[in-house]
Amino acid sequence: MTPPTLTENPFTLGVASGDPLPDSVVLWTRLAPHPHEPGNGLPTQGNVPVRWELSADEHFRRVEQSGTVCAPAQDNHTVHLDLRGLEADHVYWYRFHAGRWTSPVGRTRTAPAADALVGEARLGLISCQQYDEGYYTALRHLADEDLDAVFFVGDYIYENAINAQAGARRYPADRALPDFYNHWTVNLDDFRQRYALYKTDPDLQAAHAAHPWYVTWDDHEVENNYAGDISQDNLPADVFRARRAAAYRAYWENMPLRRPQRPNGPDMRLYRRFQYGQLAQFDLLDTRQYRSDQAYGDGWRYPGPESENPARTLTGAEQERWLLDGFRNSTATWNLVPQQVCFARRKETTAARSKLSMDSWDGYPASRQRVLAGVEQAGIENFVVLTGDDHVHYALDIKKDFDNPASRTLGVEIVGTSVSSGFDGEDRPEDWSTMTAANPHMKYYNGRRGYVIVSLDEERLRADFCTLPGVITPGAPVTTDASFVSEAGAPGLRPA
């Protein structure tokens, strides 16, 4: 089949890189000359040849590798280029060409060699970017940060209907969105178009082009608060698995992921491990695909025999074994676990018996206890959980016994607020006083939008919680609202 002639720019969705290894990184793009149309203006069959270049300088005077790959129609004309033979801990620039068109330039970086002594790592933490609840100003600022990599820990898209005005973005009539977006995502075309809408955002494109990303999902990439094969709306299992298969396929297509992550129907192996020299080990989790159904519904409920059943799991047995084996084999100074929902306990009131979130690790306490037992048994001294989901910033100590504030601190949790979900937010949400009083291990709580910069060296971890005054109008400045540190070998967060 003759490739189509590209009469319009196909690189409307930008470029991205991800999952860096010492000798490899994934480069991504998606061809979409008409991004708001089903099919994106390209044939539904065949391939489009795409040329690529990798350079040691941003002006491409020293091109180190180049070649041609295909953007297959069956993959919605996406490219997942797994480059090999690269230099460890090295910055590269890349770009793509299709027809007479050239993509924006992306900047990426490989990981340090496994045995390398790494002086410092600077990592971004982001999540939850509902398109119709605000602008991605936080991502524009994140693009300007000096980072080695970014962790995105869930809710890259949302499945809700979006009106012609794009909700809080209040698009005028001459920018109105097509009616296609004004329904909930169900099938593969729906999910593909939803990613296309999100990826047209220039601030999201800038953040992808500036840094390599490690990604994992949460619930809204499929459906709010789903649990394994169980739909929040109690759809028949076969109907929901078909929806999940469509969602997983579109997710893989639109993320800088390798071939082993390509889904098989409604199943996709997304949990994976990375080494960052001798400094850190990253264990990215998937707490949606394998979890038991939420106990007592998926909101805030009183714990009881159902939620405390030892057989309940948030990770599934296979992923849990993989995680604990990784702890036992780790020789890194820091063990980071980027994942979706709050790990530390959060009581809603100061009463001895209080409601807890059944959708978070509080709804799966036996699962959490097995992870913490694995941390102790492996002798992990610097256990760090990186979390999204809650649309607020938290700094939390992870206690051996959350009922005893004086008990041993086994690690720390950094919860990053949303990019845009929840509109502008506020510095002190209405439950701020109650939550901080009920949870003495909660060292910080802020409800604005933003991101976190996590810095690591051999001596300490530092978390800088960055916030914006608002996101329903673009262009807000970013400030560092608070900073906390945890010393290596003596976990526990304190103000920097």
From TrEMBL:
Organism superkingdom: Bacteria
Domain Phospholipase D N-terminal residue range list: 13-110
Gene3D superfamilies: PhoD-like phosphatase, Purple acid phosphatase-like, N-terminal
InterPro entries in the cross-refs: Metallo-depent_PP-like, PhoD-like_MPP, PhoD-like_sf, PhoD_N, Phospholipid_Metab_Enz
Residue intervals of the PhoD-like phosphatase metallophosphatase domain: 124-465
Pfam families per the UniProt record, alphabetical: PhoD, PhoD_N
UniProt-recorded name of the protein: Alkaline phosphatase D family protein
